Amino acid sequence: MSIINSQIKPFASKAFHNGQFIDVTDQTLLGKWSVVFFYPADFTFVCPTELGDLADLYPEFQKLGVEIYSVSTDTHFTHKAWHDTSDTIKKIQYPMLADPTHLISRNFGVLIEEAGLADRGTFVIDPEGKIQIVEINAGGVGRDAAELLRKVKAAQYVAAHPGEVCPAKWKEGDATLAPSLDLVGKI
Fold first, then answer.
1. In angstroms, rounded to a whole number, what is the distance separating the alpha carbons of residues 33 and 170?
2. Subunit comment for this entry (predicted)?
3. How far apart are CA 136 and CA 115, in angstroms?
4. Across-strand partners of 127?
5. How far apart are CA 184 and CA 144, in angstroms?
6. Of 35, 47, 98, 118, which residue is the catalytic one?
7. Is residue 47 among the annotated active site residues?
8. What does residue 97 show for φ and ψ, rounded to 5 degrees?
């Protein structure tokens, strides 16, 4: 069953954010665009490269009104320890959610049960709390924050322009399509 356009399920989490522990729930995500970015574990190898890449582009996401939430099955204490010891992770200004009970990972369908870790899952959520984009990668395949930013821009464009769609490789300012009978077989 597809989770596209489905409502996010309830959750509550402690998070490490800007030197503090904060509470984040499913309700926190409502009212703005959000990216929920699952990764397997702190103190690993591919994960810091992805999280650092997101940190580098975080100001661009913020300009679009998008909040990023990274999530692993580690605790908020582990997130703080990683933040305090890694130059790459020190750059992070977005909330790092703890999921030691695995509830959030299960809710989004990315929990690797036998390992107790999350797959590399990326979810773009609209202001109503509905999932608009899903990407799940194998553990050894890192994601690209610039491509994620492009996809968020496309999702926001489509949401703001009913009746238009963004073709492959669409970038902000490029032409879009208006699906109609006239286009069938002509693209």
1. 19
2. Homodimer; disulfide-linked, upon oxidation. 5 homodimers assemble to form a ring-like decamer.
3. 17
4. none
5. 33
6. 47
7. yes
8. -85, 140
